[in-house]
UniProtKB/TrEMBL annotation:
Protein name as catalogued: Nonribosomal peptide synthetase DhbF
Family matches, as InterPro entries: AA_adenyl_dom, AB_hydrolase_fold, ACP-like_sf, AMP-bd_C, AMP-bd_C_sf, AMP-binding_CS, AMP-dep_synth/lig_dom, CAT-like_dom_sf
Cofactor: pantetheine 4'-phosphate
Any one GO MF annotation of this record: catalytic activity
Domain Carrier, chain residue ranges per copy: 930-1004
Sequence similarity: Belongs to the ATP-dependent AMP-binding enzyme family.
PROSITE patterns: AMP_BINDING (PS00455), CARRIER (PS50075), PHOSPHOPANTETHEINE (PS00012)
Keyword Phosphoprotein appears in the UniProt entry: yes
Length: 1045
């Protein structure tokens, strides 16, 4: 027998309700609701219909509650059902959309109306807050309303309904959560997700869940729907199972992931009482599926059948509980199979249900109507408006329909990697975006420089402190040294070591090496001796150019040229004549290697002319430009700098030794009147804001550029993001000038370079889809020095050009709608820190070589916004200081971990693998920067106060310091008291005092209207309880008006 609810009684919230109400508090101005309308094909009596709504509502307990802190209070409610004669369906739909965009009425969790669109067509609109109702409840309520209205229309009393009690639903929920079944479900899910990789999604960002969305919808024609049904039967599954598998294959193809995790919406109603009680019970749980390119669709369908079966056994365990226990994103797109029974008749007139909103959307919700109701197959894509534009969503929807068509037409042996997602128009578009043909004449770095010598011999070529050297003077010095090197065996396909600190001698030396026909091998004097020894042994240069200050130990047998004593007297100053060709190496740069040893990259001259022309055109380099030389000679960013200057006739301005960033670099930029500079984001972040009127073009690259840096530095100048791996000629893509801090693409291909975004089967992926970036054209390096196996692995045949080669970058990217590439992530464990490319395996190998280390693991952690740090984890007897000293002997400074954490044992997943996500953040006092503005100081203080820490830095993340959604609400409230207007959504999106200071506004105090607190007081539950027992309820009361965030 159903439990009868007593008005005024207090009930707890179920776990499902608590989760939904908590989500609502994060976005108070964005009601989380579900909504539908029932289309009735026949005349309806509005007065009778309103009576039916009131009678049916009395049987639905969930309608008669008011949500309060920690629970819900039972209140008798009679929902109104106003009648609106809107005349046509378009007007009615517009009215309903407007209602959904506005808040529910004050203290109301439900809204309903009857709309007339024709004499024989009526729409019943129902909107409920998700805290009281889920999608499964809609058919129950609609069915009961149809029964009641039909009875009234026929002049009889409605028969008793069979809807269950909310109290029973709550009792079952509490009993489950206290049971062994709950613990068993918990163990299942934690084991299932123990080694969960990064979850792929079709969008690249995250956003707070919302009930607002863009929708793209289509209903399949009879022929297509029949083909889909037949395909499902051939696979031994239902249409719903086939479509879940299709979504998994679709997401895998678009993201390049070999494992996808979908969110599967489930009813979570496993008891008879739950199946007949309207209320909020539904759940969304992760469905983990392997979608490797070689997986056949038949195998995938079988996998879906097995995994969905296992999921349903454990479907009562809440998403909210999993979210608290499992780090990171739980799933990508949510699949919602809509197969509820809507076989309705209102006084004999047929009715059809139409969903308006199915609940909150975190990313993408795919609603599949599998045709089991006889109305055909329908597919809705509901995309979060902050993550998907309408055009992008429409493109995804169209591709999914093409995917379904191929699946329906092919047999079970269709492989996931063979599903074609592109149409001909997209192929043509990708061809346009991926190439920048310019036909730049071939040449070498030497011909580019010597052309400027001929054109402007008296122009300043190099500025080093107070010294200025003209192009003619620089050419003479370089020629003499080049002749000296040639006499000692330098020439094409030979390597000459270069270890000279940043100076005029360094410029003379690398130009001389290039003029000799040889490739220069940069040997940064700041590198550890052990690492330099490995590089010298690998390249075996017969000649090394250095100086006393470098302190280099040359390899045995190598001839050494000391720049501080070499004069060049008696040597010719004419341009050397060599057999140098564009295909010969220009330089050899060593980069981090995954095997534990650095690897050398042979970059030829072939790509230099095309990139030089790109620099001149896109960076607006002119003869009067002054180009900063700031990058280490061991970093190919130095090539970007000298090539920019020497191919355009500009001056190369050398930054003094000892300047690495901060105020000294800012001061030098101003005093040296630098017009063009390349600075990594990590170094740029250290430069205080100051007027730099001469700096016309600022290039950033080597790592992700934070939005705050774009805000600070893009105004008043051309700020460009550049991208290029070491295995190509410096830069292969440049962005358009950056104007929005929320959009920092890596850009378009440089001249005569071709960029391909491909899936694991080397198929082009559609615009907006993730794929690995491949580079083709003259900018591709020759390969790795003395590593033929690795060269053949990373430098592969170009399927688009006979005899062509491509370089596999390992970077995951996607094409944006504007034809610019957007960087997403790495496909391997390689990372970028402060602009340097690092293989974590090399650091792990060095640490593991220490006799006191048992195991070693290294992560690049972003525990603070914009502060990526290397953190090492080791087991064994060695301490952190000892290991740091050991690492410095073999690794350059940028590869030495910032923190080393000694563990008793490495955390393992349920499968016995290293659980990298369980490795703890290093314990430390916050080292965030000091606040620079009054707003930043205020917010830093509020962070510390709310989070209970001693201090917070301006770039510390709120959640990195222990914040959560409840504390975010407290932070917003205290900020308002202090005069700053913020919302919890701001805290979730911007996180640091630095970023929040930019979006906060002055909180304007508004007058609070209301009564004076004098007059009749409605009876409260506690007063009713006291009156029932004969106690006094008269007395004094006090009112207060509270403002909440």
């Amino acid at each position: 027998m159903a439990t009868v609810l007593v008005p005024g009684s207090f009930l707890p919230l179920s776990a499902a309700q608590s989760g939904m109400w908590h989500a609502q508090r994060i976005t108070p101005g964005d009601p989380i609701h579900i909504a539908q309308y029932i289309e009735i094909s026949g005349p309806v009596d509005p007065v009778l219909f309103a009576s039916a709504v009131r009678l049916a509502a009395r049987e639905v307990d969930a309608i008669h509650v008011r949500i309060v802190e920690g629970g819900q209070i039972v209140e008798e409610r009679e929902p109104a059902c106003p009648f609106l004669d809107l005349g046509d369906e378009r007007t009615a739909l517009a009215w309903m959309r407007a209602q959904l965009a506005s808040p529910l009425g004050e203290d109301s969790l439900l809204a309903t109306a009857l709309l007339r669109v024709a004499d024989d067509r009526y729409l019943w609109y129902l909107r409920c807050h998700h805290v009281i109702m889920d999608g499964y409840s809609g058919p129950m309520i609609a069915q009961r309303l149809a029964e009641v209205y039909t009875a009234l229309a026929e002049g009889r009393d409605p028969e008793p309904g069979g809807l269950g009690s909310l109290a029973t639903l709550l009792e079952e929920d509490a009993a489950y959560r206290a049971s062994g079944r709950f613990e068993a479900d918990r163990r299942h899910w934690l084991g299932k997700l123990a080694d969960l990789p990064a979850v792929p999604a079709l969008s690249s960002g995250t956003a707070v869940a919302t009930s607002r969305f863009h929708r793209w919808s289509a209903r399949l024609g009879e022929r297509d729907a029949a083909a889909l049904t037949e395909a499902a039967l051939s696979h031994g599954t239902a249409v719903s199972g086939l479509m879940i598998a299709a979504v998994a294959a679709f997401v895998g193809r678009l993201t390049g992931a070999q494992e996808v995790v979908l969110g599967l919406a489930v009813t979570a109603r496993t008891t008879p009482a739950a199946r007949r009680t309207p209320g909020m019970v539904s759940n969304v749980l992760p469905l983990r599926l392997a979608v490797r390119p070689q997986t056949t669709f038949g195998e995938l369908v079988g996998q879906v059948t097995r995994e969905v079966g296992r999921l349903l056994v454990h479907q009562r365990y809440r998403y909210e509980d999993l979210r608290r226990e499992v780090r990171g994103r739980l799933f990508g797109p949510v699949v919602n199979i809509m197969r509820f029974d809507y076989d309705l008749k209102f006084a004999g007139h047929a009715a059809t249900a139409h969903p308006l909103s199915t609940g909150p959307i975190e990313d993408l919700s795919i609603n599949l109507y599998d045709g089991s109701d006889g109305r055909g197959v329908r597919i809705d894509f509901d995309g979060h408006p902050e993550l998907y534009g309408e055009a992008e969503l429409a493109d995804h929807h169209d591709r999914f329909l093409r995917c379904l068509t191929q699946i329906a037409q092919a047999g079970p042996d269709l492989r996931v990697g063979a599903i074609e997602l592109l149409d001909e128009a997209e192929r043509a578009l990708l061809g346009d975006w991926g190439g920048a043909p310019r036909g730049v004449p071939g040449g070498t770095a030497v011909t580019l420089f010597e052309e400027q010598v001929r054109r402007r011999p008296e122009a300043v070529a190099v500025v080093a402190g107070d010294t200025e050297v003209t192009y003619a003077e620089l050419n003479v010095r370089a020629n003499r040294l080049a002749h000296h090197l040639i006499a000692r065996g330098a020439g094409p396909d030979r390597y000459v070591g270069l270890s000279v600190p940043r100076s005029l001698d360094m410029v003379v030396a690398f130009l001389a090496i290039l003029k000799s026909g040889a490739a220069y091998l940069p040997l940064d004097p700041d590198y550890p001796r052990d690492r330099l020894a490995v590089m010298l042994a690998d390249a075996a240069p017969p000649i090394v150019v250095t100086c006393a200050a470098a302190g280099l130990l040359p390899p045995p047998g190598a001839e050494v040229v000391m720049m501080d004593t070499w004069t060049g007297d008696g040597l010719p100053d004419s341009d050397p004549v060599t057999a140098l060709l564009p295909g010969h190496p220009a330089y050899v740069v060593f980069t981090s290697g995954s095997t534990g040893l650095p690897k050398g990259v042979l970059v030829t001259h072939a790509g230099l002319p095309g990139y030089a022309r790109t620099e001149i055109d896109r960076y607006a380099v002119t003869e009067d430009s002054r180009v900063l030389q700031f990058a280490s000679i061991g970093f190919d960013g130095a090539v970007l700098e000298w090539l920019m200057a020497f191919s355009s006739g500009a001056a190369l301005v050398l930054a003094p030794a000892g300047i690495y960033g901060g105020e000294p670099l800012g001061r030098f930029l101003a005093e040296a009147r630098v017009t063009h500079a390349f600075v990594t984001p990590a170094a740029l972040a250290t430069i205080p804001e100051r007027p730099l009127p001469d700096l016309r073009t600022l290039l950033v690259g080597g790592e992700v550029c934070r939005p705050e840096l774009v805000r600070r530095w893009s105004a008043g100048r051309r700020m460009i993001n550049v991208y290029g791996p070491t295995e190509t000629t410096v830069v292969v893509a440049t962005s358009d000038p950056l104007t929005s801090p929320d959009d920092t693409p890596i850009g378009r291909p440089v001249y005569d370079t071709r960029l391909h975004v491909l899936d694991p089967g080397l198929r082009a992926v559609p615009p907006g889809a993730a794929g690995e970036l491949y580079v083709a054209g003259p900018s591709v390096a020759r390969g790795y020095l003395n590593r033929p196996g690795l060269t053949s692995e990373r430098f592969v045949a170009d399927p688009s050009q006979v005899g062509g080669r491509m370089y596999r970058t390992g970077d995951l990217v996607r094409w944006g709608a504007d034809g610019q590439l957007q960087y997403l992530d790495r496909a391997d464990r390689q990372v970028k820190v402060r602009g340097f490319r690092i293989e974590l395996g090399e650091i792990e190998s060095v640490l593991a070589d220490h006799p006191g280390v048992g195991q070693a693991a290294v992560l690049a952690r972003d525990d603070q916004p914009g502060d990526r740090r290397l953190v090492a984890y080791v087991t064994g007897t060695a301490d952190a200081d000892e290991l740091r000293r050991h690492a410095r002997l073999a690794l350059p400074d940028y590869m030495v971990p910032a923190a080393i954490v000694v563990l008793e044992a490495m955390p393992l997943t349920a499968n016995g693998k290293l659980d990298r996500r369980a490795l703890p953040a290093p314990e430390r006092e916050t080292s965030g920067r000091e606040p620079a503005t009054d707003r930043e100081r205020l917010l830093c203080g509020l962070f510390a106060e709310v989070l209970g820490v001693e201090r917070a830095g301006a770039d510390d993340g709120f959640f990195d310091l222990g914040g959560d959604s409840i504390l975010a609400i407290q932070l917003v409230a205290r900020a308002r008291e202090a005069g700053l207007g913020l919302t919890p959504k701001h805290v979730f999106q911007h996180r640091s005092p630095e970023a929040l200071a930019l979006v906060a506004h002055e909180a304007v105090e508004t007058a609070v209207t209301g009564d004076d607190g004098i007059g009749p007081l409605p009876v409260t539950p506690i007063m009713a309880w006291l009156a029932e027992r004969g106690g006094p309820i008269g007395g004094f009361s006090q009112t207060v008006v509270l403002r909440v965030p």
